[in-house]
UniProtKB/TrEMBL annotation:
<dbReference type="InterPro" id="IPR006638">
    <property type="entry name" value="Elp3/MiaA/NifB-like_rSAM"/>
</dbReference>
<feature type="domain" description="Radical SAM core">
    <location>
        <begin position="268"/>
        <end position="495"/>
    </location>
</feature>
<dbReference type="GO" id="GO:0046872">
    <property type="term" value="F:metal ion binding"/>
</dbReference>
<keyword id="KW-0408">Iron</keyword>
<dbReference type="InterPro" id="IPR051198">
    <property type="entry name" value="BchE-like"/>
</dbReference>
<keyword id="KW-0411">Iron-sulfur</keyword>
<protein>
    <submittedName>
        <fullName>Radical SAM enzyme</fullName>
    </submittedName>
</protein>
<dbReference type="Pfam" id="PF04055">
    <property type="entry name" value="Radical_SAM"/>
</dbReference>
<keyword id="KW-0949">S-adenosyl-L-methionine</keyword>
<dbReference type="GO" id="GO:0005829">
    <property type="term" value="C:cytosol"/>
</dbReference>
<dbReference type="InterPro" id="IPR007197">
    <property type="entry name" value="rSAM"/>
</dbReference>
<keyword id="KW-0479">Metal-binding</keyword>
<dbReference type="InterPro" id="IPR023404">
    <property type="entry name" value="rSAM_horseshoe"/>
</dbReference>
<dbReference type="GO" id="GO:0051536">
    <property type="term" value="F:iron-sulfur cluster binding"/>
</dbReference>
<dbReference type="InterPro" id="IPR058240">
    <property type="entry name" value="rSAM_sf"/>
</dbReference>
<dbReference type="GO" id="GO:0003824">
    <property type="term" value="F:catalytic activity"/>
</dbReference>
């Protein structure tokens, strides 16, 4: 077995309260620590904030310098809409640097006369691996066009797939003769590990096994568009000590090797705010959203793990939790999660993304106990998006407005706070229809009404239909934005829909002004 040097890169949109490690990145780190510690000789965790990045060129150059310094075998990036520009620049500069490193080293090993073996090694030329939503939802046969400087791509949940890549690349390379060949990575070729010519014809190449990893697309091979699956019960928690399974296969969860306990990836002892998840996937099909149920069943954390995390949270300084579940009150275990928060007397803030039409009496009852008996601060977030029928149909986000009114009244009676979010820049929208949605939202008694600009996320139906719908995008910079307007809801460097057949760019800016005054 050869050990791998891995650089894991996270380019985040870090907000003031956020931990330095985002939850997805932390989950991958915990999985590698548990299943691959014996196959990694080096793991460097590169974390950067791209929010308000003043000089993208300088930023990308610094990231590349740090990565080259690591001399990694594998560099893995999470790609999101907010770091697309940064990732592309980093990959371009990184590929240029890699091409400049094109020589081999030769050495000898052996104890005595007649026992020497030639060791031939390429200088490290790392494989570049991309994952994240920009990869997961890219149409089939488009990844290599979007990212000409990358070698490997993971669609779907990446924890076990990354683990399996490391395991596969650490496979021992052998030959049948007295000569042994040690391989390093030569990228941008059909076969990424380029063997030096030897007298042996029996040489194994670990990269030839990569195609067996579900959800992995390898440059130069057919793009099957398959999503990587994950059994969430097998994933270690980023908030709890991680048990390392020595010499364990990344896909074998029943091994019995000795265990070493490592510190949590995100320790809670010094934090007041965390982002947390209890499930993944969403049963709804909103055409603007990348949260889709891509598997037969959505994935939920097991109740025992959720309980362990709640016990850790309630015994720590954490008093502010933002739950990342796309629709918290549609999951199989959300009531038991609330029960455990009540049992362990959570008294902080709890933000939940929910759906009005899925509010059940038991949900209101448990939220009411947290609020009225434990004095917790429950904040429900409802994505209404629009109340206009034509707009709601095209985004497949219809609302039963009578149900919305009734449930809003129930929440107010139980002192449960809620927030309503809308979108502007939608197909068929006008300034007047946007105002109509705002006025309706204000009548519901929400603590806050917010509105966000429409972005066409890769792989969504709106992105596929943008020409048909006449949606025009523009990447905004600080020059485009009025200095007197807050920039929190406009992401510089990210394309936004700013024009359509029903609103001009000037009218879009008027909607932006209205949204920023809410």
């Amino acid at each position: 077995m050869r050990k791998i040097r891995l650089a894991l890169v996270s380019l985040d949109w870090i907000r003031p309260k956020d931990p330095l490690t985002n939850l997805g990145h932390a989950s991958i780190l915990a999985t590698l620590q548990k299943y691959n510690s014996n196959q990694l000789t080096f793991l460097n965790d590169h974390r950067y904030s791209v929010k308000y990045c003043p000089d993208v060129e300088e930023f990308s150059e610094n990231v590349v310098k740090n990565l080259i310094y690591d001399e990694p075998d594998l560099i893995a990036f999470g790609v999101y809409i907010w770091n697309e520009l940064h990732t592309q620049l980093i990959l371009k500069k990184l590929r240029k640097r890699i091409k400049e490193r094109d020589y081999i080293s030769i050495g000898f090993s052996g104890k005595g006369r007649g026992e020497g073996r030639i060791m031939i090694d390429y200088l490290r030329k790392p494989l570049i691996l991309l994952g994240g939503p920009q990869i997961s939802y890219a149409p089939i046969n488009t990844l290599e066009g979007h990212y000409p400087d990358a070698d490997l791509f993971i669609r779907g949940y990446a924890e076990k797939a990354v683990s399996k890549v490391v395991e596969t690349l650490s496979t021992h390379v052998t030959s049948s003769g007295n000569m042994t060949s040690s391989y390093q990575f030569a990228t941008h070729q059909q076969c990424f590990l380029r063997p030096i010519s030897t007298t042996s014809s029996n040489i194994s190449n670990p990269t030839m096994l990569l195609h067996k990893i579900k959800g992995l697309h390898q440059r130069g091979h057919p793009d099957l568009g398959i999503q990587a699956a994950v059994d969430m019960e097998s994933l270690p928690s980023p908030f709890l000590p991680v048990e390392t399974l020595e010499n364990a296969s990344s896909l074998d969860n029943n091994v019995s090797q000795s265990k070493l306990v490592n510190s949590p990836i995100i320790p809670l002892s010094n934090r007041s705010f965390i982002r947390w998840e209890t499930q993944r996937g969403c049963p709804f099909k909103c055409t603007f959203c990348q949260h889709r149920d891509t598997y037969t069943n959505r994935q939920a954390l097991s109740p025992p793990r959720t309980l362990s995390e709640i016990q850790e949270i309630t015994s720590s300084p954490v008093n502010d939790i933002a739950v990342l579940d796309p629709t918290f009150n549609s999951g199989p275990n959300y009531l038991s999660t609330l029960d455990n928060l009540i049992k362990y007397k959570y008294k902080g803030k709890l933000s939940l993304q929910t759906r009005f039409e899925m509010i059940k009496p038991q949900f209101i009852e448990k939220c009411s106990v947290l609020v009225n008996e434990l004095n917790a601060n429950i904040q429900l977030e409802f994505g209404v998006q629009s109340i206009i029928k034509k707009e709601s149909l095209v985004i497949q986000r219809m609302n039963n407005l009578n149900s919305v009114k009734e449930n809003s009244s129930l929440l107010r009676k139980n002192n449960i706070k809620f927030e309503i979010s809308l979108i502007y820049g939608l197909p068929h929208q006008t300034v007047e229809s946007f105002k109509e949605s705002i006025e309706f939202a204000k009548t519901l008694g929400a603590e806050k009404v917010v509105a966000w600009p429409l972005m066409l996320l890769r792989g969504t139906e709106l992105e596929r239909r943008k020409e048909e719908l006449g949606l025009k995008e523009e990447t905004l910079s600080s020059v485009d934005l009025d200095s007197e307007l807050p920039r929190e809801r406009i992401s510089e460097g990210i394309p936004h829909v700013v024009e359509s057949p029903t609103f001009t760019k000037g009218e879009w800016r008027e909607m932006m002004r209205i949204a920023n005054e809410l």
